[in-house]
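Inputs:
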Amino acid sequence: MSSKTVSDAPTAPVIFITGATSGFGAATARKFARNGWKVIATGRRSGRLKKLAAEFGSDVVLPLTMDLTDESSIRQAIAAIPAEFSPVTCLFNNGGLALGSSPMPDVDPADWRIMVETNIMGLVTTTLGLLDSLKAAGAGASIINVGSAAGIYAYPGGNVYGASKAFVHHFSTELRCDLAGSDIRVTSFIPGMAKTEFTTVRTHGDAAANEAFYQGVKPILPEDVADIIWFVANIPPHLNINVLELMPIIQVPTIPTILRDKPQT
Ligand SMILES: NC(=O)c1ccc[n+]([C@@H]2O[C@H](COP(=O)([O-])OP(=O)(O)OC[C@H]3O[C@@H](n4cnc5c(N)ncnc54)[C@H](OP(=O)(O)O)[C@@H]3O)[C@@H](O)[C@H]2O)c1
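Outputs:
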């Protein structure tokens, strides 16, 4: 690529990652920390965040315990960012979860509430809290929101999880409109089937269901996502990847299901 990227800046750019304790977020934190960026690593499991900081040093990785379901926790974490980790060049809005995979009505509304609070309210609150910092970063700043193929392609049992990720996609396009004229790029990143702790969390710790889900397939791996996030954050500042949908080759978006032999009215 011809133009300079944010990685060419004289001072280290900063990435703020939600959900840095596992999966996509942890792999992305390591990728950026290894390649000259400073990383603000957030999540609830502070032990894992501290381990990450110990791997790279506290001048490279700043661990900040933060619960996406708790607005004051988000505010406190953002307020605790020191000058050495400011301004934030890239916000990787990645933290999130699915809980349950049964079709309605066999669902737990408590799970629904957690997904809405985490995937929707946590993401928008973090975004709003970091906007001034991203604006201060200037050319090359970016917000990368993690949606899901579940937010585009409906399936039985996707219900509120899929809908929360559809929100993330649409919010990303709305944000892009609101930020028009600023330097901040916005990307809706839409991954398909990936192997992380996601399915263990979704099944409330059912290890057998987790193994069965990934049997016989090669899904997206966290390191694949880290490489893609690196690319998205580092394209020249005059470019914006609006939407990036990623699937493993074995996952095929196909035609809508036809229910044959169903009594017709
Ligand atoms: N894996 C897939 O197949 C897949 C596919 C499409 C989209 N996604 C999306 O990708 C994103 C990353 O998931 P992953 O696959 O990497 O799963 P993962 O390994 O389970 O990681 C999820 C991360 O989200 C964080 N998180 C969950 N609830 C949180 C809360 N209340 N406050 C703060 N952080 C919270 C977790 O941190 P703590 O538990 O430490 O708080 C963890 O770091 C999610 O948004 C997920 O919906 C995943």
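Remarks. The chain has a mean pLDDT of 96. Helices lie at 23-34, 46-56, 71-79, 109-137, 159-178, 198-202, 207-214, 222-234.
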